[in-house]
Amino acid sequence: MSSSIFTPVEFPVDFLWGAATAAYQVEGSPLADGAGVSSWHRFVRTPGRVRDGDTGDVACDHYRRWPEDLQWMRRIGLGSYRFSISWSRILPEGRGRVNPAGLAHYERKVDALLEAGIQPNITLYHWDLPAALDDRGGWLNPDIADWFADYASVLFKALGDRVPMWATLNEPWVITDGGFLHGTLAPGHRSAYEAAIAARQLMRAHGRAVQAFRALVPAAPDRRIGLVVNIEPKYPASHGAADLAATARADAYMNRQYLDPALRGTTPAELPEVFGEAWVDWPAEELALAHQPLDFIGINYYTRAVVRDDPAAWPLRASAVRQTQATHTETAWEVYPPGLTDTLLWFKQHYGDLPIYITENGSAFYDPPSVEAPVLDDPLRTDYLRRHLRAVHAAREAGVNVRGYYAWSLLDNLEWALGYSKRFGLLHVNYATQKRTPKATCALYSQVISTRGRCLNDTASAPTDGLP
Ligand code: GBH
User: Is Amino-acid biosynthesis among the key words of this record (predicted)?
Assistant: First the structure.
């Protein structure tokens, strides 16, 4: 088998093509139909936390406009839609009383997707915690494993007979690094002690939810549960011992901190030196709980990092070296498609042949706030998509078990602390009118889906004639 990126592209018939969103980023109407307040509803109201004071109060109005967005998904030709459920719509206080109207909302959405032949892929937790649970310590409270399993069980009972793919958590690393270590995301704390505690509670909660799934949903090939992690391959800035050790720390911290417990029942050897005195060994029973058999792993890939030793960088003592010759996206991330092939090969080497889905991949480049033309010209974004899909194909050619790809994102949306300033969508959203307009990348993606990627072999540039 060849792993050359020049192998002609052709994905198999059953390769899953999707697009992803997350509840707080797209839904709007955060308190509608009896929903409770979430941690993000609160965080966006804390002065200075989100750029320009942006909030998810309206966002893409997806909570009300999802039927229109479903029509867009059909036009693009998506085989799957990955979205998250807002915990505080289902359980307004986070536990106890179920809100039937919140549940009904997601039941309608799931049924409409199935009706349209689009597989729902549900993420249980994409960062919006019920505020009532935050008041009890949130991810720092050991009871959260029970709260999360109870919440998950409500959904498994209501939707477990219909939903083919579930994920427990989206990017536990981002939850702890952003929420508890650096404080850039809700709940905005800054403590290595808290980050280490939250990591353990996240994986206990993950384990309990997977156990609940096995207990409540009869085993079937199209009833699967997994975990979604963000991976960013780490390359040493030099081959000096200090840079190599820094690279290993960064890799352990970001890439293996959650995969090792989930897939091997261990924690990476480098973590005690990363966390210093905040580190606590995970008790054997916690490692066992985190280590549940999974049906797939979801990998979110955006960029790589070239790492150097940096004693001043807390707490990793490592920092990324900006690659000045490279193209960077609007979020200042290096465009590095070979890193996606490397990530997939790395996963296979470390963790074996578990089915992999790329559950997010995409880029923010400048788009004007409103557009009149039917299709936006975004050559950097189309180039990003093209090259990353070739990178996925190269990994498949090299024998990696990658079975699907989700573009991030279906829609431009609230980019967390960066507000609406960054646009990752296949569909442009005019926030003043809520008009959706397919970008050139959207048209390209649609063509990729209908040709199973063969159009990527053409040297011609992206289609500009819109969606079929
Ligand atoms: C995802 O996280 C989220 O799941 C999604 O909600 C979000 O909208 C999307 O990505 C886009 O941001 O600054 O060069 O050090 C992204 C995970 C981890 C990717 C940190 C970029 C930092 C690169 N991110 N990483 S750098």
Answer: no
